[in-house]
Amino acid sequence: MLFKAFKWRLHKDISALKYSSDDKLDSHYLNVRLHKPNAQPAKTLEKLTVYVMETGCVHLEYPVETVCLVFDLTGFSLANMDFNMFKYLATVFEAYYPESLGRIIIHGASFPWLDPIVAAKVYFTCSDNELTQCIDANYLPVQYKSSRDKDKYKYIRAQPGENRRLEDTKAKEKLFEALTREWITVGTPEAKPAGTEAEIKVEREQVAKDLCVAFFKINPYIRACNMFHRSTPQVAQDDGSVKWT
């Protein structure tokens, strides 16, 4: 599965997709009841799906390592049904983002066709109150009656020069080489003698933190900024932490 995922990421050129600023995408928000399957190429929706997943990874902080997807099907009809897109989603979560899906919430409609493994992670809700059994009312968007979050969504456009480090290939190569050497040596027997089980557990957790720090050092050179980097106050921090307000 790991080899297949790497091959897929190379074939789909995921690195180039992460270079894309979010204001260059064909769509930022997909309202299901307005979705027309033939209104855009299937590749466009596939690209958007992968971009959303890659952007979602920025917002995951240990111990939270999975995402929650909410499909609001209020006003949904058969004219909006896109089986190819749904199958693509299932394939992506199964093969290319394994164990990344924590829960899917289907709000406002039934959904009879599901793989049994995926079905175990799917919840059906009808009323806004039922949504609060899965998502705290403080985090529900303002359009839901049960919401206690009164902030209205406002897209923040890309700022000039925010992705200048993407073009600094020399700095990227130098940093990547240095970090790779650190990854190779940190936590190895040569770096530190093996200890008790408790010591090894502490060391493993420290290595995980070191890898996370190293990743976010290289991140500005391989991933374009998104609106969560531009928000005031800033949600996605430069050190990889996430601060929601």
Automatic annotation (TrEMBL):
Q: Which SMART domains match?
A: SEC14
- What SUPFAM superfamilies does the database record attribute to this sequence? CRAL/TRIO domain
Query: Which parts of the sequence belong to the CRAL-TRIO domain?
Result: 10-149
Under the heading InterPro entries, the entry gives:
CRAL-TRIO_dom, CRAL-TRIO_dom_sf, PITP/CRAL-TRIO
Record's protein name: CRAL-TRIO domain-containing protein
Q: Which Pfam families match?
A: CRAL_TRIO (PF00650)
